[in-house]
Amino acid sequence: MQLTYPKAPANGVQQLRPALQAALQTRGFGINRLFANARANTLSLSEAFRGYALSLEDLASGKGLDQACAGDWHYLVFAAGMSIADAQLREVAGMVEFSALNHGALAASTVSALNLAEQHPRLQGKAYELRLLFVPALQVTAIWLHGINEALLIPLQPTPKSLATHQLYSEAALLGLLAPAARHTKAAFDADTSGTLSG
Q1: Is residue 74 a contact partner of residue 86, using CB atoms and an 8 Å limit?
Q2: Is the separation of the CB atoms in 114 and 143 below 8 Å?
Q3: Is the pLDDT of residue 165 over 80?
Q4: Residue 165 has what DSSP assignment?
């Protein structure tokens, strides 16, 4: 399997460096042990890839990934070959700026999913653009392998019980599993007159 990447922001890495250096110096951003023990001269970044969000309304009404909206740029952060964080940039008025540094399970789970994809017989000899898919209303995150004629997804940790983490799904299979929960959740939002469910 060959991974391809979209054209990244020209100054993306330059925008991330100060945030990474600050995090190392202050041990801030909800630091984890791997990051806390990392040294600046051992850090490296993956190629940039894009996150996309699929809304509850689109999922509940049966719409597909073509309705997902592009969001932040993501870079996996490595120290001495170990994945330690996910760094994010957002676009504002045509410029990119630091958005977040995630020390949770996202980075390690992403690497595990990619290792699975590279070894999967179904994907051998094919090329896919690497993307992340978020369904915020259902707290679902998945690797999205965007091909010319197909979309394949691998859910990341943590994930709802209805999905198997690090299993390969077709677009139809994954969205089909999520659609009932989306309809149920949307019905609860629509029925709420107190305003508490909408925040």
Answers
A1: yes
A2: yes
A3: yes
A4: T
pLDDT above 70 for 192:
no
**How far is the C-alpha of 129 from the C-alpha of 117, rounded, in Å?**
12
Q: Tell me which residue of 177, 153, 168 sits closest to 119, measured CA to CA.
A: 168
Q: What is the DSSP letter of 123?
A: G
* Residues 153 and 141 sit within 8 Å (Cβ to Cβ): no
Cβ atoms of 34 and 84 closer than 8 Å:
yes
Residue 184 three-state SS: helix
Do the Cβ atoms of 127 and 147 come closer than 8 Å?
yes
**How many residues belong to the chain?**
199
Number of H helices, E strands in the chain: 5, 10
> By mean pLDDT, which of 39-48, 109-118, 123-132 is the weakest?
39-48
Give all strands (DSSP E) within the chain, no chain letters. 2-4, 43-45, 49-53, 69-79, 82-92, 95-102, 127-135, 140-146, 151-155, 169-170
| Cα radius of gyration rounded to whole Å, the chain | 18
What tokens does 42 get? 């051992």
Under DSSP, the state recorded for 182 is H
Question: Using CA atoms, how far apart are residues 12 and 5, in angstroms rounded to an integer?
Answer: 14
CA dist 126 and 170 (Å) reads 15
- CA dihedral sign, ordered 67, 72, 73, 79: negative
